[in-house]
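User: Could you check the structure of this?
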Amino acid sequence: MNSPTAWNLAELRIQARARRANAGEVLDLISSVDRSSRIFEYHMASARDAMNGLYSDVKNEVEELLFVFGASDRQHDFEHAKIVSEAHIIGCLHTARGIWDLFAQLLNALVLPQPLSVATCDIGRVAEALPPSPLKDAVNRSIESNWYLYVMAFTNTTKHRRLVQHLVSVSFAEQRSGIKLAAFEYNRRAFPAYWDTEVLQGAIEVKNGINECGRLLNAATRHSP
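Assistant: Sure, the predicted structure tokens are below.
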């Protein structure tokens, strides 16, 4: 079965064993990226399917509004599914962020001419320290993207401040209903409300950024002395 990380971790393991004095540390990081990617896929699929059998069965706007006002005869099932959705969306976004943290440690161990201490190593500092290369460009492009910034703000907010509201919403203008994540602010930056499906797609974009950078990391280590 192909790894869901979508870059060749087996090659990276071979390079780590062959070339690096810190092979044990690097191999542990690679395994952590691999396992975290599988956890990400689990949360993604579980969040996507959490509301199955509820909104998919709704026949009209009246039933949708009953969910909003807590008056549906299926309200208990709905509230349980809503918590399941929220839990897995939070898990998905925190896991995506965690993979970027692990990737920063991999870059630090494999690419930086003067590695940072583990305590000061994060993806922003690593990106600044990377020598000019396609890898540096790809990392900067990823961590400057709107969805990366959203994921970082969301995870910092839910970890240190409060949970972002997970709301039932009906939009007659968009002719859709479902779960919407409320707008919030972090570090004086405002983030708008999004449908749950939009947030999950954004998380995939953040994860795909790691895939692209991972393939470039392989190329960089393949051609290093």
